Each structure stands twice: as structure tokens, then as C-alpha cells.
């Protein structure tokens, strides 16, 4: 996008028009978008390909109940105990059966679980009354309950204990009240004690959530107020899109999709960015000075190829260098040049170098995030421009669709490019990092070429733009194939 003096856009849109565009094209990032029929790689060639199912709550309940019933049948145990065992051992039914058959008593003890038949009732209490060690009341033996650990408490204290635990969100992990007792309390024991039906309903709701979280093949959609549960055969770090709320996330960790960066690395990066947010605040400015005439320029598009509206000089938004130097095969602007002798420098010099390195990668990470936001507006601008062209008989709607496809692919490539920077930041020096930086630079160069062309394309540019799209997508897929860890 050309640089320009800070000013409001001349284009205005009605809310209805923007809403229509968003409904029609909001699925810009995903491979299963039929409206934007990009040339997609075969499943075997696509490093991001991932099979998953989107389930409703009732489907998940039926699935879990079937697994519980199967374990009950195999081990001849109650559903309450089967559910506890499945939760404690990640729903690995074959492993549970094998270990239980080997040594049932030891297996249950190791699992902090006891068989229901060993629960102690009031019939085990000597005498007609007993004193509760919690409330110190002497009550009828009918008022007491205990598990096999023989820690007797009155029903009122049990009820209070369960209410407190449930209100704190704890269900499957509720333990006996006995001192240092780690024995888990089964579902039927809890529900037999709870007096408040609303608390019982809350228990089942929280318990269902715990069971889902413990199942390696299931994950809640993290979208706001979304009840969809995703099922996949393997817990891979692959992209999932919810067709209900349109959220996109990583199946393994549940946060925003982050290929090629792995789950542990992106968590470290996001934590570091949060901790160092004040240090990096100066980066958030949306204006810079033209390196030639020094006029203040605002970045109002996703492209990093800037052209000053005053002196017409072309430069890079990131490094402020001449743009013609970025046209080479290696896009140097994306690579941090480390000091090879840093280990021999003083602690203070090393600290400054570490900060310099972090800011280098953070600035580029943040820049691509902002470019994606700006390109959302570019996408709407293109839709509006196409409407105007069609109304003026300058081509048909179908003839202009290539431009929307290009804008869609641009966002897809830039999204992947943004997440290459956390990966590069933590990657150790060596041949692998050199290869990664080379491929990253190639992708970055193609993304900027595509971005520049998308913002200026006309109907006669179909062939050239489609060629740029093909190259950019191949660069992206090549990088992911070589570095996406699953």
C-alpha cells in the first residue's frame, strides 16, 4: 500500500454492504472454502491436512457413555468406577483392562480409586451414635458415610465439602476429607449426598467438561459461547475450523493456529511478548518518516512496499531501506544478523544483543499481525471496487473473482509468515536455521510482491496475478512441509 500523509479514507461503505461481503468471504483463510476455489494440493501433499469431526454435546455424551459401558462390561464394574478409571488414564480402555487384569487391587490403589463395594456404610459404625470430627456433633449413625479409607464424616459435612469443591470447579478430582487422604470420591457417592438439585446439575456439567479435557481425541472449541466438541484420531498440532463460530485453532493446544511454530514454542513466545510488552511499546506506532524526504507516513495497507506520496521514493516499511534492494532472491530484511562473537562479550553487551534480537523478531511478528488487520479492509475495498466496476460495465462479476481469490490467498500466506518469526527466534544457529531463513525470505518476498499487485490489479492482470499466487502458495507449502512439526 502506498504511504501517504495521515488522513481518513475517501471510501465509505454502508453497514449492510460490509456485512454482506463478510458473510460471503469471511472464510478467506481455510482450504475448505468452496466459494474461493483455489487450486488446492492433494491431501497427501498438504502438510496442514487434518481429519476431524465436529460433534454436538449429545453426540459426545453418547460417545462417552458407550466407552463407559464397554469398560463396565469388560471389568464387571459400575459406571461410576469405570468413568473414574477412564478419566484417570486418558480414556485408554485397552491399557486400563490390561493393568486391571494384572493386579486389580494395586491398580485401583495407584489410581486413588476404590471399588464401590468397599464403600463403608453406617452399618460399620459401632454404637448408635458417632461424633463427626469436622463439626464435632454427636449424631445418629444413620447420619454418617465413609469410603473404604474409613474416614467417617456426617452427611452435612460431606454435603458442605462437595458444595465448596463444585463451586470451585472441581468434580472428578474431589478427594476424601480425611487428613492427607488422597482417595477420590466417586460420582454416585457425591450425588447420593448432595441435597441441592441445582448443585447436582452443576456437578454433572463440570464433570462432563473434565471428562472431555482428559480425552486425547476430544477438545472443546475455544470460540465464545460455542458448545462444539472436536474429535480427531490423533492429537496433532493441526488447524481446526469450527463451522459454527468460525474459530480457528490448533487441535493439540487449543490456542490460535500457529504453524510452523510448535505448541510449546508459541506458548513461550506469547508469554515473553506479554512480559516484555512495555519494552516493545514503541513498535506499536503506526507512523514512520520517509527515509528520503522525512515526511510522516502512515501505513494504511498490509504491504510493506511503501511509496511516499510526496517524493515517490520506494522503501521498505520494516527496515526503511530502498525497496529495489529487496527484489533479490534473498529477502535480507527478514533475517536477524547475530554477532558471532557475542559469547566473548560482557554481560551488559550480551543483554543488549538479546534485547535487540527480541525486538527484531517482535517487530516483524507485530507488523504482519497489523498487516492482516489492514488487509481485512483491503478485502472489503476490493469487493466495493468490483461492485463499482461491474456497475460501470467494466467486466463481469465472475471475471473479477480472481482478485478476491488473490486477496484470500494473500491473507493465508501472510498468516503463515507471521508465525515463522517465533519459530526463527528460538531456532538455534546452524544449517537448519539457515535453510529456514532462506525459505522464510523467499515466502516474504512473494507475499510482498503479491500484496503490492493485489492492491493495484486490474482485470487485464489476471495471468500475472495468478502466477504470483501460484508461486506464493508453493513457497508457503514448501516451508511447512520442511518445518511443520506434528
UniProtKB/TrEMBL annotation:
The keyword Metal-binding appears for this protein: yes
Pfam families membership: Ariadne, IBR, IBR_1, UBA_ARIH2_N
BP terms from Gene Ontology: protein ubiquitination
Keyword match Cell division: no
SUPFAM superfamilies registered for this protein in UniProt: RING/U-box
Subcellular location: Nucleus
Its EC number(s): 2.3.2.31
Leading EC class: transferase
One cellular component term from this protein's GO annotations in UniProt: nucleus
Region feature (Disordered): 1-42
Catalyzed reaction equations: [E2 ubiquitin-conjugating enzyme]-S-ubiquitinyl-L-cysteine + [acceptor protein]-L-lysine = [E2 ubiquitin-conjugating enzyme]-L-cysteine + [acceptor protein]-N(6)-ubiquitinyl-L-lysine
Domain of life (superkingdom): Eukaryota
Main location class: nucleus
UniProt cross-references to CDD domains, sorted A to Z: BRcat_RBR_TRIAD1 (cd20344), Rcat_RBR_TRIAD1 (cd20360), RING-HC_RBR_TRIAD1 (cd16773)
Gene3D superfamilies with a match to the protein in the record: 1.20.120.1750, Zinc/RING finger domain, C3HC4 (zinc finger) (3.30.40.10)
Domain RING-type stretches: 128-337, 132-176
Family stated for the protein in its record: Belongs to the RBR family. Ariadne subfamily.
Protein name stated in the entry: RBR-type E3 ubiquitin transferase
